[in-house]
Amino acid sequence: MKINQHHYVERDTGQVCSERPIGDWIVNYLYSKKREEVPFVYHLLGSQWFSGFLGWVNYDFPLGQSVSGMRRFLKNCAINLSECLDRPEELDSARKVFERRIRYWQWRPMSEHSSAVVSPSDSRLLIGSFKDTSSLFLKGKFFEYEELLGSNKTSWLRAFHGGDFVICRLTPEKYHYNHTPVAGVVCDFYENEGDYHSCNPGPVVSLATPYSKNKRVVTVINTDVNGGTGVGWVAMIEVVALMVGDIVQCYSRSEYKDPQPVEVGMFLQRGYPKSLFRPGSSTTVLLFQKDRVEFSQDLIRNLYRTDVESRYSEGLGRPLVETDIKVRSTIGHGKREKGGSNDF
């Protein structure tokens, strides 16, 4: 049965909500099966130049000549202005809205538990395991494991083989800063180039391996160090999507002050701003080593709820349900640390 709607579970309330993506019909049209009939157009749409052009049309264009136009846009996007550092009148373009800074230290509290792993973004989240191939719809549809990390990264492919993963999908209205999910030392940092495709649920399902075809930035963090989270190696993969021209690395340990590029050897504290997606829908993937992380029980329960319609499914139709989650909220703990796995 074809699913015409995409629902998710709001973590704070447990309520089932319906997603209505901005410009959803445009994105779905551009990435329909018709692209196969016009290969040139498809490759054009996959280019960074065209992504940048669409980004300007959709995001840099002024929100109107009046304050009412701006307020209408913000209302349609359900933006909570009280979270923002900038004054409402300064958010006069869609790009400024989507690249907004928030008072995360007030509005996005974080657990002090030393082994807590936290969400890297305000996003819709799915969890899974590479050792459980029967429930890995994401592995076959969204990306190939080797392509995601890089087929030449033999050591990391071995390190994360059979491990667990988290996929955080940012919809366009979300806060677009990624935060560090764990504390530890950066032991590798590199980019994999690729084409630009949408991370909206409709086009994602229609493409064979869209995440593996997108440009992505990979940061591998060793958390088994003094002051680290203690969950082994963690790979944080930031994926560029349609209408996103760049990922800006801007790690800041004090609010958004003195941003620094991420480099090998740098110690990253947990929960701080790490990078900024340019406007559009984007995705962050976390990879964990086998048997090092225990996911929060509410996220596991939500994943297999049968009362929710979802466009993400495994195999022949079993839904995999996303949970809408806030950045810096707990998504799991190190397996050596028992208890508290539902803390958020």
**Amino- and carboxy-terminal Cα gap:** 35 Å
Fraction of residues in H or I helices: 10-25%
Mean pLDDT: 78
Largest sheet: 10 strands, mixed
pLDDT < 50 stretches: 24-41, 133-142, 203-212, 337-344
Please report which band the strand proportion falls in: under 5%, 5-15%, 15-25%, 25-35%, 35-45% or over 45%.
15-25%
What Rg, in angstroms, do the CA atoms define? 19 Å
Structural class: alpha+beta
Find the count of extended strands (DSSP E, 2+ residues).
Answer: 18
Distinctive features:
344 residues, alpha+beta, ten-stranded mixed sheet, three-stranded antiparallel sheet, 23% helix, 24% strand, globular
What does it look like?
The chain has 344 residues and is an alpha+beta fold. It has a domain at 113-334. The protein has twelve helices and 18 strands. The protein has helices at 24-30, 39-45, 48-60, 67-76, 94-98, 104-107, 137-141, 145-149, 154-159, 201-206, 210-213, 297-303, and strands at residues 7-10, 16-18, 116-118, 123-129, 164-170, 177-179, 184-192, 216-222, 233-239, 247-249, 267-268, 273-277, 282-288, 293-295, 313-314, 318-319, 322-325, 330-334. The strands form four sheets. It has a ten-stranded mixed beta sheet, covered by helices on one side. Strands 3-18-14 form a three-stranded antiparallel beta sheet. Strand 15 and strand 16 (318-319) form a beta hairpin. The protein is globular. The two termini are 35 Å apart.
SSE blueprint and pairings:
Blueprint lengths: L6 E4 L5 E3 L5 H7 L8 H7 L2 H13 L6 H10 L17 H5 L5 H4 L8 E3 L4 E7 L7 H5 L3 H5 L4 H6 L4 E7 L6 E3 L4 E9 L8 H6 L3 H4 L2 E7 L10 E7 L7 E3 L17 E2 L4 E5 L4 E7 L4 E3 L1 H7 L9 E2 L3 E2 L2 E4 L4 E5 L10
